Amino acid sequence: MVNIYDLYITRSKSELDYFYKLLHFLQYVEMGESTLQIVHLNFGSREIVPNIKFTNTKMNAVVYTFDKESKTVYETIIYNLYDLIKLYIPRSGINVFIYTGHSDGLCLIKKKVRILRMEDFCEMVSLVNKGQKADLMVFDCCLCGNIGTLYVCYDYTKYVLASSSYQSYLSILQTNNFFKKFKDMETFCKNIIKELGSLEKLDKEAYDSDFSLYIMNEAVKELVNLTLNYKHQFNNHRSYVIDSSYYKDLECCFSDLNLDIRPLLKQFVVFNRYHKTKCQNRKVSKKKNVSVPSQLMIILKRPIKDHLKTKADVFLK
Predict the structure, then answer these.
(1) Where exactly are the structural domains of the chain?
(2) Tens-place pLDDT, residues 264-277
(3) Strand ranges in the chain using DSSP code E only, listed in sequence order
(4) Is there a contact between 11 and 42 (Cβ–Cβ < 8 Å)?
(5) What is the pLDDT of residues 215-251, one digit of tens each?
(6) Are the CB atoms for 256 and 235 separated by under 8 Å?
(7) How far apart, in whole angstroms, are the C-alpha atoms of residue 70 and residue 27?
(8) Are 58 and 49 in contact, with CB atoms under 8 Å apart?
(9) Which residues make beta-bridge pairs with 42?
(10) Res 79 pLDDT > 70
């Protein structure tokens, strides 16, 4: 039995349209042995929503549950993180937790809708999962394929699936492979990444996301320590991944210092959609919404100055 728990955030009409397309897909997909529970929170693009762990904010939540026998939906009102957590029903089996929405790589936010930090989402996962590690955490959003995300999530999950690129509004839940018979985690995730790639090619408004699958082992901790020792030596003018120069490819940052971290990456990067052919030292245009392929990024500057501090701030220069 695969239990899938999703927090789905929308903040515009176009995002809501994609969410409704997902619901239409879920009406007809064969759920097999999977159970899916989605909590949907919808906000306006100009709405101001502070972090819901530390601040009470009235929110309308819609809870959808899908399994092979039934489909149910109900509406409720919540005020904070702990109200949100109570909406999810703990189940035994293989437990997958997904965040679908926006992220700057440190927090699960966009503009003034600043729902959660990465560690707040981890707390939600831990409490729903009764203190046990999740089998998989999926960041169905932009820019979470970075060492800060792995550092924060390390004690809460066995695997992380995240993208080091911008991501389109197509959700990873729109893949048939998410609901097929589970064999093993690595095959499960590889099939999902490949199918999502095919869907992005078919959607004219979508662009390619660069998902990677990471296993949380000792090599992650080793690379974390190495990075903390060398981050202040990273070149500010090289190894860009997106249009903001402080999002950098970690392998290239070390390569500039004549250090090869590929043997370490090989130990925990189980699969990635795209392979980097060279280090990119020029910023990508914002208008392109594309990213240079990267197995793992580092974020060296806080993307939004006035949001809460996070555990991943240790990687900032």
Answers:
(1) 2-215, 218-267+275-315
(2) 999 999 999 988 88
(3) 2-10, 34-42, 59-66, 71-78, 94-100, 107-110, 113-117, 136-140, 159-163, 211-215, 247-249, 269-272, 297-299
(4) yes
(5) 999 999 999 999 999 999 999 889 999 989 999 999 9
(6) yes
(7) 10
(8) no
(9) 10
(10) yes
* pLDDT over 90 at 203, yes or no: no
Q: CA 120, CA 6: separation in Å to the nearest integer?
A: 15
3-state helix, strand, coil in the chain (%, to 5): 30, 25, 45
Where on the phi/psi map is residue 143: left (φ > 0), alpha (ψ -120 to 50), or beta? left
Sign of the torsion angle spanned by Cα atoms 51, 146, 132, 193: positive
Residues 6+ apart with CB under 8 A from 269: 212, 213, 214, 295, 296
Could you tell me the two tokens for 292?
A: 């240079």
* Cα–Cα dist 270/213, whole Å: 5
Nearest-angstrom CA–CA distance, 53 and 84: 10
Report which residue type is found at 63: V
In angstroms, the CA 267 to CA 296 distance is 13
Q: Which CATH architecture has domain 2-215?
A: 3-Layer(aba) Sandwich (3.40)
Write out the two tokens for 284.
């990508």
From the list 63, 315, 62, 98, the residue with the least C-alpha distance to 189 is 98
